[in-house]
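1st attempt posting a full record on here, be nice pls
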Amino acid sequence: MHELSLTHNLQTETPPLVRGASINSWAEPSSIASPILNIQASFEAAICPECERELFDPHNRRYLYPFISCTSCGPRFTINGDISCDDCRAEYEDLQDRRFHSQTVACSKCGPFVTLRASHSNISTIEYRLSAILRTRRLLREGGIVAVNNLSGFHLVCDAYNPMAVEQLHQHRNRAEKPFVIMASDLTVIEKNCIISSQEKDLLSSREKPIVLLDKKRMEIFPIAAAGMMLPHTPLHHLLLNQTDPILARESAPSLLAITTGDFSEESATIEMEALLTGSNQVIWSK
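the predicted structure (as tokens):
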């Protein structure tokens, strides 16, 4: 009975990021059977529904905090250092909390914090926290190209509806014949621009937040028949694209972003902020 109960718990009560490949059991010399669960866990996971709700809840202490995460989502390699505030420490030590022993637990009190660095005309400016987010939304709306610090490096984004910005991004990346991936603020925006089935909706909304190739209804986003579409997968992307939050609405933002890797032409992916500032003279996001 103990083996059956344990096997059932392993199948039904595992964390969201755990996938069981198989369960095997055998008799030990003591005649006690031991179930073995073979699992693989994701290293980097898209924001979970619970964190997304907290991200846009004005009464939550992580409201609009771009590095919100828990044990079910967020970075795995790019983890934070020591936990500094009492609230985060209490969550980390609470067995019943979904941030129990989450190494990425953080909030707007203890950080990390988002930073916007702009370099143009030999003048550099730096903005922090909400001001950085609002300023970046405005830059995207005005046709700017932004380098976003992703979980594993930088990628470049611009307003997918702005042909001049898209052309500039093509020139910067030296890939005029290759379309960019399009990130949409939500499924409604994708439905407005693309032909999409219920199965494709489920795939786009899944925890993996994959890129899905869809036939287009409108030609405004690149003059091609199909586009690789995806939904925001990190809190920062949600904050850049959100169309409904009253605070973020102070600076309207595009509902579709063209997105590509942050390397220069055929070079390897850019990781360091200084390399992007030197190579693109553009706008930089960082922790």
